[in-house]
Amino acid sequence: SSSSSKSKSKTGGGSINNGSGGGSASSGGAESGKRGLMDLFRFRAKQEEQELVFGLDSPPPMHSNKPHETFEVRNMPQHNAVTSFLLRILAGIAFSVAINLALSLVFALLFCLQSRGLVRAVLAPAHPHDTSAATAAADAKTAAAAAAVPICFIETVLFSAYVLVSGSNDPSLTGLAVSPQAPFSVTLFCIMAFLGRACAFVPLIIMYFLQLNPASCLTFSRWVVINTSASTLLGGDLQNPVLEFRIANLLGFKRPLLQAQVAASLNIRPRLAQETRRFIPLKLLNPEQITMPTAWTLTHEIDESSPLRNETWEQLDAQYAEIRITFSGLNPRTHQQIHEIHLYKVEDIVFNARFKNMISRQNNHTVADFAHFHTILLKREDLAPARH
Predict the structure, then answer these.
(1) Residue 298's closest CA among 340, 347, 248, 346?
(2) In degrees, to the nearest 5, what angle opens at C-alpha 278 toward C-alphas 275 and 283?
(3) What b-and-e string marks burial along 181-214, b requiring 16 or more CB atoms within 10 Å of the CB?
């Protein structure tokens, strides 16, 4: 028993010694971690002392000695979206007035088909609290005299127009009323009142369709040119002929359209199947722009895979060729998608021509002259005889 107790005491003492050793190791690890964290803080503080802080109102860290570049646009076609929108609103109002006048004439003619369909309205007596016999006789005489006056066609038209606009009748304004003994006139009045209530939503409908069809802010070049000589475009040399056309953003360089995408296709009638029409896509070299420039020249390289390879103007004319351009972009102010389709006929395709440069730069001042937006340059001997 004594030996077992000694072994237990040794075992217990061993366990105590192991526990104290583990505690010292853990405390040493914590202290080393604190020392490492403090060293990191000291390093960062020393690093921040050697760094400069630039905030919102701070001057730029790097200064350029070059003067700031300026940009100027000349002779751009005016595009006033507000004026165009107001003109379309006025056109919508004029259309509504014309429809109301036409319906008024139609209903006035229908009222004239039934005699005594409309009668003079009996207004309230001038002295309603006077119940004497003389006053009653005078009021009756006045009402009879008013009823004896015939109703002219102009009064019927004004009555119809008022009911169509308001959806009801005010005898004090129109001076007319529908006779209860004329069922045809009562039916016409009910139809007019319903149309008058429904016409209250006409301005909202006009605004909706105006929102669906905003005024165009794009213009396309008058011509599509095919330059058969080597061209230097997009910073590289193209040894193949190219097809080019231009698109201009009339909103100006301060309001570029976002996510602009352009696609082009060649539409022809095959020589062996004139009753059908083929739509062949034309691959553009620069079909997408994050922000559309003020003037955008798009290029199609006429390489081995192009449907325009070895085609002449006469061959395109024989196939009734057309070039269809589709544009899509986003207006940054209204957040509205813009979709445009433009069609170039074969008469608009010019071979051996190039666009005149509309960009000039001098002393960090860039000028875009839209007077040359549609201008092309070609030699007279290159003009096809069929085009004279």
Answers:
(1) 248
(2) 165
(3) ebeebeebbeebbebbeebeeeeeebeeebeeeb
The H or E element containing residue 37 is helix 2-49
Q: Enter the pTM of the model.
A: 0.57
Contact 306, 238 (CB under 8 A): no
Question: Over 70: is that where the pLDDT of 233 sits?
Answer: no
Pick 233 or 90 by higher pLDDT. Answer: 90
> How far is the C-alpha of 323 from the C-alpha of 383, rounded, in Å?
20
Over range 79-87, report the average pLDDT.
62
The mean pLDDT of 304-332, rounded to a whole number, is 91
Average per-residue pLDDT for the chain: 75
| Distance of alpha carbon 69 from alpha carbon 250, whole angstroms | 22
Is residue 237 very low, low, confident or very high in pLDDT (cuts 50, 70, 90)? low
Q: Which amino acid type is present at position 78?
A: Q
C-alpha–C-alpha distance, residues 50 and 44, integer Å: 10
CA separation for the pair 120, 174 (Å, rounded): 9
Q: Is the pLDDT of residue 216 over 60?
A: yes
Q: pLDDT > 70: what percent of the chain?
A: 65
Which SS3 state, helix, strand or coil, does residue 186 take?
helix
- Within 10 Å of residue 351's Cβ, how many Cβ atoms? 19
Is 171 in a helix, a strand, or coil? helix
DSSP 57-121: TSPPSS---SPPPEEEEESPPP--HHHHHHHHHHHHHHHHHHHHHHHHHHHHHHHHHSTTSEEE-
How far CA 125 is from CA of 140, 146, 151, 213, 287, in Å, comes to: 9, 13, 21, 55, 79
What is the C-alpha separation between 135 and 142, in angstroms, rounded? 11
Unique residue bearing structure tokens 């107001």:
86
pLDDT of residue 143: 57
Give residue 328's identity as a one-letter amino acid code. S
